[in-house]
Design a protein that fits this description.
The protein has 2 helices and 8 strands; from the N terminus they run αββββββββα. The protein is an alpha+beta fold.
């Protein structure tokens, strides 16, 4: 009986301390996901972060290889607009994947900037396989398929005619 009372008291004590901590965790700040952008080396792209507190100063940080705005800086600051979004310009000259972090109030948002090597930038995603074989036009496929269907129909008609002549 004493074990049950001690267990109940222990659960009540845990609940007493855990519930306020959980409530404060929601107010302390959370992380939102920003955009994921692919760019060519040196190309400036716009990264728009949403879900931030409205009309709040924000700070963007990036690795040293990334240029924020027009300055060669790894940190930039702007206020968010009335809808809680802010846009930063970012560029990098070295191929790779970079994480840009924006903090506004207690909210942290992250974005991913992928700089593709110059041989795949603009022309494709880099995931394309090399073109091999012969590119046959669609019209030629339809003509070939139609010829096969007509040939099968001709064989069926000729077989039926031969069987009818043999039975007559």
């Amino acid at each position: 009986m004493i074990r049950k009372a001690l267990a109940t008291a222990a659960l009540a004590a845990v609940a007493l301390f855990a519930v306020p901590a959980a409530a404060q965790a929601e107010e302390a700040g959370y992380t939102t996901q920003g955009p994921a952008v692919t760019a060519a080396p040196g190309e400036a792209v716009s990264l728009t972060f949403t879900g931030l507190p409205a009309n709040t100063p924000s700070t963007a940080t990036a690795p040293d290889a990334v240029t924020l705005a027009v300055l060669k800086a790894s940190t930039a600051s702007k206020p968010t607009d009335a809808s809680g979004s802010v846009t930063y310009q970012a560029s990098a000259t070295q191929p790779g994947t970079y994480t840009i972090t924006v903090t506004a109030g207690g909210v942290v948002a992250t974005a991913t900037l992928t700089v593709a090597p110059s041989d795949t930038a603009g022309g494709g995603s880099g995931d394309d396989l090399a073109s091999t074989g012969f590119d046959l036009p669609v019209l030629a496929l339809w003509v070939g398929g139609g010829a096969l269907v007509l040939g099968a129909a001709l064989i069926a008609v000729m077989t039926t005619v031969r069987r009818n002549r043999g039975n007559a």
